[in-house]
Amino acid sequence: MESNDVEDEEFGFSRNYFLAKELCGSGKKSARKLSEIGVVDEQELRDAYTKIESKHEKEIGDLVSSYRKSYSEWAFVLRCGFGLLMYGFGSKKALIEDFASTALTDYSVIVINGYLQSVNLKQVAVTLAELLWEQLKMHRKSTSESQPKSQQPFLTRSMDDLISFLDGPHLEDDECFVCVLVNNIDGPGLRDSETQQYLSRLAACSHIRMVASIDHVNAPLLWDKKMVHTQFNWYWYHVPTYAPYKVEGTFFPLILAHSGSAQSVKTASIVLQSLTPNAQSVFKVLAEHQIAHSEEEGMPFNNLYTICRERFLVSSQITLNAHLTEFKDHELVKTRRNADGEDCLYVPLTSEALQKLVQEITQ
Amino acid sequence: MEFVDDILTFSDLGEHLKSRGCYVANFSSLDFSAKNGVGGCLKTLLRQFLMVDIDAPEMSILASWYTEKGNNENPLVLIIEDVERCYGPVLNDFIIMLREWVIKIPIILILGVATTVDSLRSTLTSNGFLYLSVCEFTLGTPAERMDAVIEAVLLKRCQRFSVGKQVSTFLRNYFLRHDGTLTLFLRALKDFDDNSILLTETFLKQARDIPSFQRYCQRSANSANWANGLSDMKRLRKLWSSTVMCLYEVGKYRKTTLLDLYCEVLEPGPDNSNSPDHMQLPKHNTMSLHNHDSIGCPKKEGYVGWAIQRVRDLPVVELCKLLNRWEMLTRGIKEIHEKVKELHSLTTFEANHPKLDQTETPRRQAAARNKVNEKTDKATVNEKVATFLQCIVGEYIQPIESIPFNEIVFFDDAEKLQTALIGDPRRRIQVDLLESNKFLKCSCCSKNSGMPVPSMHNTSIMYSLAQEHGDLINLHEWYHSFKSIVTGTRVQVQKPKKRLKSSPSPSPKKPKDSNEQTKNRSDADIQAEFCRAVIELQMTGLLRMPSKRRPDYVQRVAFGL
């Protein structure tokens, strides 16, 4: 309790959302652009990203191995019919998989990686059913029961069928089950409510036990009371590891690489290079005009048409329009009104970025 | 009904109806979603009855299946657990469709409604609603069931395991204030059960070290062995639970729930375990006890005292009934049962005699005398029963901690239970980040309490820095404060509170100052670390990425723990 009070004092000011809102007001005055940081070249950044040294490697190792002595308890709780839910800061992928490979060796285990962009849950259910089928067959052989009649392959069955097979009363003892490890059950691939419903129904099956990890602070909002209490039946464990989210973070954009102008110049030049030389030249006319008159709203359509005609780039307004439509589709060109009420064309890039782009396409 | 609690009720009902020859199908609200449509419902229906998947579901298939069965006595029963959550139009269409076939296929719908029956009217169109002929059944309230659960699990099976004051209070508070459902309670009970199995396994090996066993050995010097200790424990627990049940019977006169009583009786301390206290209590506190009565909130100290007083005040007939119930409750426990029987026969005698007198001598005087007699008799009988109650409470309601071997069955770790059953990721993950050195137990980061130091985990530094910002964090400023910390150039004297009024973040150091230190860590490294920390915060949901409108800001999501 004492430590809580200390926290209260230390972070008391951050507690208040409205205070935070006020702070934001004062923050705006000193607003600085992200581009002012002086971001290094994207490739260099990515190289450095792969080579980040982690701090406290020894302590992290100690922390993670300190959980090893709880493995037997976890396995026991799992056998009792609870689902294990691991939370706390740090990647828990290695921890869970280590747990499975040490303490769950008697059972079949399958791993679902929720951090992937999409997960085929039907395939998961099919695999689970096949594993259970194998396990049951082994069991029947050892107890010399009669083999059940051959049945429809799992792949062609519906999800409901598969779930009722996994939930079916095949054996008297509960010890015959398949473990499902879900890394990031709150991950992007599993976040929608339909998938969560299926997962909860899977978790509720008598022959399935589930071990999952969450990272998002609001992950419990994915589940309603029924799912949490009767289907997943979670037993929460707070296991911070502080291990880097290496694999889990693969699909997130680097904040400094993505929003920099480097990215947009690169993509724009790729688009432009795939167009015809005439189209490129039209774009260049527009770009040069914008560089020369950077304070203006843009270039009126008629001016552009006149210049392009003079240079024999287009023969009619229709062809010019075709080019412009192409540019607009790729967000290379936008229109806005100037003070005279004329529609002006402009390239949504800064002057420096535009210069760089023009250089790239002239090469 | 409370739909989470009643899932089992419905599946049991389904099983029961099946055993009576009905055809039963269970639905949940998911089957009545807009996405599935009526076709989806029908598909589920056919799947459950015909056991096959049909691509083009039609009612005629069901009808022919039903006539094939040839047994037209038994109707089809469809159970829908949670009607409120169904998509109204689909449910409505489904009901209209069933109605069209009702002559061929008689169907009974069993609908679980959590609010009021009127809610059906709002989900269905008037047309669909008219087709239903509604019968209402009300299931027991959660509070009633809670009492039944406590009686069945904690009192009747108490030799197996028992819980302490803290745990029971935690569960009671959770039940009353948060959830209102039994499910968590039941899960908790399962958890104790598991825990006690675990404990039993470990304790059997090291029984000699159990402190209470040692105490027990000291008390009864002669051959204190295992079996005696355990059977003693069993006996004491049984006496304890039957005494609680007796108290509960008295408590019924003012609608005390068993849950409240249970929590109260568990209170360790002298009040419940020492009889002299109770002897004094009722006499001094009669007035205040009556107050409690009227308000209906039993005060802890008062309950036993109140119960005894109540027994004193009971009319003979009621007392007789009470003793009758006590007799039933204590059957098999000879220590209490004999006395209860004795008292019971005494009261039945008292209860019968005045009646006879009254009928035989209807004269006023005699009646008056009788009344006086009755009063004194009643007083003595009531006093006897009250003394008896006092006695058993004093003798048998002992704190569980004093019973030998209590460690095997006793569980009072409310905190462990709470963390296991109700995780608190929102708070815990933030604490992980803000106090990383507590978990990592490193020597380097604990020196500077509260202020980020370069050796800390990068994401920890970043999140601590984010605390100083408003709901929007300027990426540029954030990066520079991060950079100044990891390169060790940040002025450490600054206190976060001071910065509240000034600029939210220290102005970035000029490269000139930090040139020496930054040499060994290139910008690329620091930027990469920054990126990773942002990604990690994004994954934990503590940050929202820059929008198109505000490309230079990220948004903070959590404020305070």
UniProtKB/TrEMBL annotation, chain A:
Q: Which residues form the Origin recognition complex subunit 2 RecA-like domain?
A: 61-239
Q: Does the keyword Lyase apply?
A: no
Tell me which UniProt keywords the record has, alphabetically: DNA replication, Nucleus
* Compartment annotation: Nucleus
Q: Where is the Origin recognition complex subunit 2 winged-helix domain?
A: 293-352
Query: For this protein, what is any one GO molecular function term?
Result: DNA replication origin binding
Quote a single Gene Ontology cellular component term.
nuclear origin of replication recognition complex
Chief location of this protein within or outside the cell: nucleus
Q: Name one GO biological process term.
A: DNA replication
InterPro entries named in the record: ORC2 (IPR007220), RecA-like_ORC2 (IPR056772), WHD_ORC2 (IPR056773)
Function as written in the Swiss-Prot or TrEMBL entry: Component of the origin recognition complex (ORC) that binds origins of replication. DNA-binding is ATP-dependent. ORC is required to assemble the pre-replication complex necessary to initiate DNA replication.
Q: Which family does it belong to?
A: Belongs to the ORC2 family.
The record's subunit annotation is: Component of the origin recognition complex (ORC).
- Name listed for the protein in its UniProt record: Origin recognition complex subunit 2
From which source organism is this entry?
A: Erythranthe guttata (Yellow monkey flower)
Automatic annotation (TrEMBL), chain B:
Give a GO cellular-component term.
Answer: DNA replication preinitiation complex
InterPro entries in alphabetical order: ORC3, ORC3_N, ORC_WH_C
Q: Which domain of life is it from?
A: Eukaryota
User: Which intervals of the chain are annotated as region Disordered?
Assistant: 493-523
The alphabetized UniProt keywords are: DNA replication, DNA-binding, Nucleus
Name one molecular function that GO assigns to this entry. DNA replication origin binding
Q: Which residues form the Origin recognition complex subunit 3 winged helix C-terminal domain?
A: 426-559
State whether keyword Nucleus applies: yes
* GO terms (BP aspect): DNA replication initiation
In which residue ranges is the amino acid composition biased (Basic and acidic residues)? 510-523
Subcellular location as annotated: Nucleus
Report the Pfam families cross-referenced here: ORC3_N, WHD_ORC
Q: Give the Origin recognition complex subunit 3 N-terminal domain ranges.
A: 3-190
Record family assignment: Belongs to the ORC3 family.
Return the protein name.
Uncharacterized protein
Organism per entry: Erythranthe guttata
